[in-house]
Amino acid sequence: MTLTKLNTQTKSSIQGKYRLVLIVIAIVSLVFGACETPEKLMKNPDINYKLKVATAWYNKKEYYKCIPIFEELMGLMKGQRSTEDIYYMYCMANYRQGDYMIAAYHFKSFANTYPTSQKAEECLYMNAMSNEKLSPKYELDQSYTTKAIDAFQSFINQYPSSKRVDTANTMIRTLRKKLEKKAISNAELYYKTGNFKAAAVSFENLLVKFPDIDNVERILFMVVKSYNRYAENSIATKKVDRYHSVINSYKNFAYKYPKSKYTAEALKYEQDAHYYAAEAAYDKVFAYILQEREKQFLLAIKECNTQLPLIKNPDQIKKCNEIIEKCYFGIIRNNYDLAEEQADTNAVRRDAKKVDFFDRTVKSYYNFVDKYKNGKYFKEAEKLYALASDNLTKLKRDGQKQKN
């Protein structure tokens, strides 16, 4: 045997023994590692050993074991050596363990703490994914859905060239659909429970928040329908404006969908709204005190004259004209009542006020007669005119006597 062959055999023998030692060490480590528990390991003062065992647990997907050790090691090693890799494994372990709230916080913290790290992009993306995992069914509170959308958008803004951008955009669209479904559900619920104002506003907001929403036709129809129910259930002083909302929302609906399957129903709401707005304007008058009613009668007349050309129903046209007649007659009666109710303790001032209102009664009578000489309220108007005229004559005569 030559010296060269002897050296080769000796070298091979040494290498073989070295490999055997490594295998033994690995087996021993595995045995001891298998016997370790997080509680026991935390008592071990050897940081390197702790890291080795915790990393082995992480690789074996025993995340519940390695999480507390990684957490401890980050504290022990702070200021001594880099904890970047440990922090990354800690973040991923929480995510894979299903602790998405904790994971979301730490993924974002990692990206902020190590902005130049090769893992920063992934961690910012995983922050968004963690929030997406926290996003519940659409029926529940959607705070985390909104957070996830914001997080994905933040990721796209920060890493516009990332290979994950397409996935992030897809996730945003999916999450927005969930918010859209939630918003539709809320609007429908408002309507079903009789909260018609909230329903109308919610349906309108859908079109603002989700411009690419499906079934816009029905949503616009529901705006009309909700405002109609809202107006129907309103007090007299609010009905006029709310029927105007029905009319305006119908115009918007009809402009976009002139041949909609909802047109017949929506058109009925709009046509009725013209008449009911006029009727409500008259009813509104009596919510005011006598001193303010003439102004409200005039507003009611104006409302009727505005709506009358737009009313198609013959019966409603007839009723609207009757409302106008009642308003003109109402002004006569209102002035007469104001004259009669004067109770000033000073006789001179009281009589002066009476004269003024009786005089206005007479003038409003002439205005009424010009339009409704053969009207329904003509005889009553004549009586008030006669009484006002007699009182004027008497008051003026008495006033003249006092001067003399």
Please describe the topology of this protein:
Blueprint: H1 3-35, H2 38-43, H3 47-59, H4 63-76, H5 84-97, H6 100-113, H7 120-134, H8 143-158, H9 165-192, H10 196-209, H11 216-232, H12 236-256, H13 263-285, H14 290-307, H15 314-340, H16 347-372, H17 378-403
Question: What can you tell me about this protein's structure?
Answer:
- The protein is mostly helical and 404 residues long.
- The chain has a domain at 313-404: Up-down Bundle (Methane Monooxygenase Hydroxylase, Chain G, domain 1).
- 80% of the residues lie in helices and 0% in strands.
- The chain has helices at residues 3-35, 38-43, 47-59, 63-76, 84-97, 100-113, 120-134, 143-158, 165-192, 196-209, 216-232, 236-256, 263-285, 290-307, 314-340, 347-372, 378-403.
- Helix 3 (47-59) runs antiparallel to helix 4 (63-76), helix 13 packs antiparallel against helix 14 and helix 16 (347-372) packs antiparallel against helix 17.
- The protein is elongated, with a radius of gyration of 42 Å.
- Residues 1-6 and 24-33 have low confidence and may be disordered.
